## 1
Amino acid sequence: MKEKFLKLVSTAVPLPVENIDTDQIIPARFLKATIREGFGENLFRDWRFDEQGNPKPGFVLNNPKYSGRILVAGKNFGCGSSREHAAWALYDYGFRAILSSFFADIFRNNALNNALLPVQVSDDFLQRIFRIVEQDPSSKITIDLENQQVVLPDGTSSSFDINPYKKVCLMNGYDDIDYLLSLRDEIAAFEKSLTES
Amino acid sequence: MSVSKTLFDKIWDAHVVKQKEGYPDVLFIDRHFIHEVTSPQAFDGLRKRNIPVFRPQRTTATADHNVPTKDQHLPIREALSRHQVEKLRANCAEFGIELYDLGHPYQGIVHIIGPELGLTLPGMTIVCGDSHTSTHGAFGTIAFGIGTSEVEQVLATQCILQYRPKTMRIEVNGTLQKGVVAKDIILYIISKISASGATGYFVEYAGSAIENLSMEARMTICNMSIEMGARGGLIAPDDTTFNYIRGRRFAPQGEELNRLINKWKQLKSDAGASYDKVLRFEASDIAPMITYGTNPGMGIRITDRIPTPDELNALSEKSSFVKSLQYMGLEPGTTLLGKKVDYVFIGSCTNARIEDLRMVARVVKGKKKAPDVEVWVVPGSKQVEKQAREEGLDRIFEEAGFELRGPGCSACLGMNEDKIPAGKYCISTSNRNFEGRQGPGARTFLASPLSAAAAAITGRITDVREFLE
Ligand code: SF4
């Protein structure tokens, strides 16, 4: 069982950069662990720390003004390498949802498989979120999974899409493997028909 | 009346175990590849659930990302890398999976060894916890990268839950100019449609310029499908494909192979099949390509200027563009020709097959590298290395001052010992130029093996056509 996702109300961290690839989210040299936990320490490692390991003051995660469980990022978030470690690192750091105007396919799947909600909104709405959060970092954003709505403090809102199956999984903390395991007999029968054709 | 289907639809439909309204399709996976980085947590998952691997004979493992490319017979020096490879060894032994471990004659980069061993066959569904699984699409397969949770699903059930992606057809027609190879075709396409231009799609490559390519060149094209966001890319199998497969170690043989070839001949899109999107390019428009930025879409013809922010189409990309050029230490509006490079990396699952090495040897034969560049040639597999030595390519490289190393992912990603130092420029035949991809602070120019070879000789970014009179 995974953590259930129902409704998230949180401040947000703005990262208005496009094409953030998973090598930035978690560089390859930190992928050597053989467990799922602990990747948060190295989230955005090379943007966050200099070579000596000192925090770079200009990077948003080092800016005490911003915190929260929502990351707001530019379009095409999570492109590049399929490393699920990217989703683990974001989750481990404390994020529970990513807002962007576009997600790379593999990252989206990986996030959904790890109770991390990718929320895709329009470019305009995304820019609006950046403005609101940057003007007032204490602004709280509501992500309501059941009603598929993102609501901003000024009352404006936007709906978002999510696959109905994935929605049920997230809201109940199910994972795909339970469903697949229940089909093992059907799978074996299918395999037989495949090799006979 | 039967409906016209695309090649993609034919393979997908033949692998759907179950379809249910509102649910993703349950897709049967014919072949699964694993490596040390993205599999340990999946095996832990099986252990936690106390279940075996459902079909161990359909999974093949190798160690590639974390292995050194020098002194491969010695234990891996770096403790964490060693631990990860040992973990793979223990997991494969415990769950009954064939492993081509360091030192094994079949070891190599996962996407190089699958095809070369005849494990990759037309019409298959293939997955691996690695985005460049798209490489196998060159054989007319549905092949795509997955995350570790999905690796666990495949190990547990030989199936994966997937939504059917949209389909895109990319045609390249006509004849390639001299000095232009598969890598240039794909870098050109990505530069035209951007690093996210095919997100949500599965691409079929077609057209005369694609049909005329060798299998290895087709793999280079399909390999980089992910760099424009596509889940994967595939090419209809033909005689080139069948001839490549014949005689491979694990490929079907004799009558069985002939029977299969007859079946595989049906693996093409029907006339009139419809795609969600169709793009067409002319081969004659393509020149040797090079990237200047920090995503593979930021590419230009080697003789072109880097654009200026004003020349960019999308306003929203400007900030990323400026950041990217700062990282690369380059000025907008300038040309890359003559720019000094510090390293040349010839390797990776994009360009480390025997034809790539031959291409490099053809350019450098009888020449020497520039004194202040370091040149690494990293074969994609043990078998490629062996063949290169048998053909005498190793001597050509040695005389040129290149270092021929042992197989692995090497400097394609800054994970193992082979890293490009901060601030240094590397012309690389790999597939990603992301910030820090080849090591923290490393600056990458992506190009073809021909262009990399030319740069090795001059020490500068060079139009390889000058070498090909
Ligand atoms: S060579 Fe590079 S791209 Fe290919 S599998 Fe290895 S790390 Fe990934």
## 2
Amino acid sequence: MINNSMFLNFLIVTTLFLWVSPYSNAHQADAITAIQWPVKITPKMLLGKRLFFDKRLSKDYKTSCASCHQFDRGGSSFEKRPIQHSGKPAKHNSTSIFNITQNYKLGWIGQFASAELHLNNLIEEKKDMGLSWMEIEQRINTDAEYVKLFTQAFTATELGGDITRGHINQALVTYELALTTPSSFDLYLQGDKTAITEQAVKGFELFQDYGCVSCHQGKNIGGNLFQKLGVFETYQPAFSMEDRTHLGRYNYSGKAIDRQVFRVPSLRNVALTSPYFHDGSIYDLGTVIKLMAKHQLGRNLSEVDIARIIAFLQSLNGMPHPELIP
Amino acid sequence: MNKHFKMVLISAGFVLLIGGLYSYFESEKTSQFQLNNSIHSYVNEIEKLDASLDKQVLLINSWYFSNYDAVNQAYHQYQRFLDNPPYLPKKLASVLLNLNDQLATKTELIEQVKSNNAVLRNSLNYLPALTNKLALSLEVAGKQKQLTNVQINAYKQHMYRLVFQGIASQLIHHRTKKIKKIPSLVDLPAEAVVDWKNFNVHINMLIEVKQLDKELHEQIEQIEMKKNIELLAGMFSQHLAESDQQLKQYQSWFIGYLFIGLIVITAFFIALRYYNQQHSKYKKQTLTDPLTGLGNRRKLDKAMSIYIEQAKKSKTIVGVLFIDLDGFKNVNDSLGHKRGDQLLVQIAKRLESALRRHDLITRTGGDEFVVVIPNANIEVLQRIADQILRLLTLEIKHRDGPVLVSASIGISCYPTDTEGALQLIEYADEAMYQAKADGKSCIRLFMDI
């Protein structure tokens, strides 16, 4: 009887292993890939940097892009939901401006197909900065220094006559796309085993074992797919009837299947981007990890494991190229 | 010389025209060729991108999967390529719109596949460890005599059966009919109960997600982008054939039009020339005397003013000789009109032989001739008149005896007599009458009477 069951045991475990191995392969190699700083800093990037930090792009001369995307906050904001020009809070907690890629949708619910569209949308709605493209074009065209910088960054045929919204958009987006933040973990991935602490290495193993890496993968450790918030256990944040942010991508697509679906955020610089979640409701990283494990993975984590994972996540902190920071 | 030059010019024009047309058709051909080439490479590229996206979607469920960046990259390239087509003919553009729509629905499904796949991977990753943990805790419970071997076996069998069900439910289902019902949770040790429940949750999730994955892939397969791409390629080759034919047709039409145009232009020129010829012939007829071929009175009137003008410019003398035949009526009466006409022709010839090339001889009446002599002086006029008189003094033999013909000549001179053209002829006429009155066959100057 026992022999029989042992054989069955062996058979089943072997079969299961064979079945599972293609999937578990993802958790072994290449799930996360390293990133680099841009190879060459172009005049267009530097022009974009100037625009990014320029408060003259707002109506009251008080807001710039960097107001919601703060560089000491991992490209995000310390506010739950940044207050807009209109005085109302924004729909979502601001996502990081670092490590955005051109090949996937942006925003918490993937509402922007590209960085250009994000910028266009932001200015056309006039909520955040309070200025229209026309006014911005006017302000920039009357500034001699900007005119000089634009003529340096663009060729004569590209520029044509005046500086237009297209040129401003292009310069800003070029700059934003150049804001990659390689970290000590990237060195670890590239073979330097001492680049991160032992605690962090253990944290990375746990990160894979627990299955966080199922969603948080790719070069930005997330940010490249959608997932329902609350796979194993429904996530019910406090919400009011007017505020339907918790419905996630449903607000954008209107499809029942998109309820509570959000874009999986990138975990690069995650230790700096508190508060967390789409509504900025949670400030503590440990709590977030616990909640994620519970709702997304159907697991309960011990405090020790959480501390290790935090150590791993802290090893993901990095800064953009020194020439691109203020 | 002039005519040859014209011919060369016309033929050079023809060569240029044909050369221009030829080069126009050639450039049209090459531009169409380039356009078609760009469309061709575009269609090819779409095929490649579609295949690479399909490959990446299949890779999601495979051994070689690493992360979702590759799928996103493939999709992004595909989308960007569809968004920036070259100039396409209308038919192809509509297929491209279809492709765009299809890609949009496909990506939505791919997004679902991705999220689903992440959950699937998570459960599959967790389950081996979980089953192992459960088996261990069951064995520990066995050692501590909390469970009998039979109970442990039942739990294990149930557990593995669920795992297999998660992988291939149908085959197991057939066997499960023989297997005993699910062992109750009551017997399990407390720490294993949590894992047991968790195991059930993950297994159920696995089954659900696997089923969904299968459905999603089926849905993706139903979006027949390949068919549309093939349609695009087929339409493109059709378009190629059509445009080729069209170009040829245009070419032949154009050459046809060119020939018709040339014929019309040639006909026009021929007609114009014929008209001109007719016109000048008529003009000449009105100015000549049909019998002798000399100018008539109209010609004299016309030419007179021109001679006077020229003389006025060059300050020379123009002489007018008015000649009237004496005894011409006799010729007609006795010899007949036919002979008279012959005589007139003969006299005209004689006059022509006596005069210079630039002098004008006209027959203004039946037997009246007027001769205009430019660049003359009185002596020359007198001499010419003498010669004419001599030449026109004839004796025609006849059976009734000879018929005598002579001439009376009146001379007037510009500008000494008058400056008016018509008056000059009148004065010469008057001088001639004087000559007649003075006994015929003599010369009278107007200035002398």
